[in-house]
Amino acid sequence: MTPLKNCQICHIPTNGKRHYGVVSCRACAAFFRRAGCSNRSKKCKKLKNCVAKEDGFFACKFCRLQKCLNAGMSSESFQFNRDGYQVAKIPMTMDTFLGKPNFIIFRASNETSSSKNFIDVQYLIDRVAQVLQEGPETPIISKSKLGKLSLGLRNIQGTTKYPDPKSVEMYGKNEALAQVEYDILSVTKWVTHFDEFQKLPHVLKLTMLEGIWNIWWKLERISDVARKIKANLNEEMLRKLDKDHLFHAWDLKQLDFSWFSKNTVEELKFFLDIPTEIRLDPLTQLMLDLDPSDIELSFMLSQLCFQYVGKRFQGEILRISEKFQEILADDLHDYYVNDMSNPYYMKRLAKMMKINNQIQLDVYRSKVRSSLGHVFDIFDIEVSHPELFIDLTPC
Fold it and tell me: What superfamily would CATH give domain 111-389?
């Protein structure tokens, strides 16, 4: 072992190693390094003969530096820029040269709006107006407004059309527009069974339909999947299924979205909510556990739509939506108390609201992602009535 010696600067015991040419302690070596690299001048407030205390503490930096120099310390052995990251340069790439990230640089060149596909949906607006004017296809008698909506829902469920992968060779523009037309008209027919809605001015009815048709179908499709699962699997088989079990997946080659974007289906799925799989996801599991009646499902659809459209448009529509929700909530209470003899229904109501709240959250997240698609201009389509699709794609 190296014999212990005293520091030649402060005279405290040290390990005998030499620092900058002199046997010194680490504290004095570090001080000399700092002082030697500093441009600030140091002055002695006494007679330039200050000494260290017994514990090695120096009160005067000037005298300490002079003792270092007199003992033979030299700054010639100082080493600088020993860390590799301090001298390494960022390699010149396209994104560093331009100051833009890759996902913005390497995209399709800008094109004029005239090159985008234009879709005129005025015919659909006219059909919606006609359905609203004519009212329900068949008169329905029920003791409550919520009951009428549930009967109208049964008619829609009996004729619901979903694309069948086995019978559809290619799901493209014509199939997508036909599906949108069916979805919008179905919701329009359903809502005509609500007398309070039919009393609104025509302009207000159209505006509210713009906001509710897409989110209405999000809940109804979850309900439809749950009904089909229950119809084909018994309780024991359901319990054996893993979470997120895959029931069906579309072959992406069957999906043709070239009519509104140059991006692939996988790329578009980042920006849009494109359901290409049917899984036992958390929402479907919640719906299976709830197993709502027609009255309960009608209330869930109404509450989800009117709450969402009220938040979206605010003002008069918000006041109307809150009034509608109160009317239907009273009908639901009467249903539980009088028809079901169940005044303690809060647990079921909480489950219903949990599903609705999760759907709204998913919609808001989807809108954030779709807005990015609008920023990056990935959609090659323009629509005559973009407000009808604001919750679907940023046209």
Answer: Retinoid X Receptor (1.10.565.10)
| DSSP element (H, E) containing 117 | strand 117-119
Q: How far apart are the first and last CA of the chain?
A: 80
Q: Please state the CATH superfamily assignment of the domain spanning residues 5-77 in this structure.
A: Erythroid Transcription Factor GATA-1, subunit A (3.30.50.10)
pTM: 0.69
What single letter denotes the amino acid at residue 339? Answer: D
Contacts 24+ apart (CB under 8 A), 153-159: 153/190, 153/294, 153/297, 153/298, 153/301, 154/294, 155/189, 156/186, 156/189, 156/190, 156/220, 157/220, 157/224
Mean predicted confidence (pLDDT) in 180-192? 92
| 45: pLDDT strictly greater than 60 | yes
Given 3-state DSSP classes, what are the helix, strand and coil percentages for the chain, each rounded to the nearest 5? 55, 5, 35
Burial of 332: CB neighbours in 10 Å, binned 0-12, 13-18, 19+: buried
Q: What is the DSSP string of 27-41?
A: HHHHHHHHHHH----
In order of 14, 26, 44, 50, 56, the CA distances from 64 in angstroms are 17, 14, 10, 8, 11
| pLDDT per residue as tens digits for the range 192-235 | 999 999 999 999 999 999 999 989 999 999 999 999 888 888 88
Looking at residue 140, the DSSP 8-state letter turns out to be -
Spell out the SS3 assignment of 165-185: CCCCCCECHHHHHHHHHHHHH
Statement: residue 99 has pLDDT above 70:
no
Q: Does the structure show a pLDDT above 60 at 85?
A: no
Instruction: Find tokens 């299924």 and name the residue.
Output: 241
Hey, what amino acid is at 198?
Q
- Mean pLDDT of all residues in the chain? 83
Amino acid residing at 211:
G
Q: Can you tell me the distance from the alpha carbon of 278 to that of 32, in angstroms, rounded to the nearest whole number?
A: 72
Query: Residues 266-281: what's their mean pLDDT?
Result: 84
What's the rounded Cα separation, in Å, for the pair 292 and 300? 9
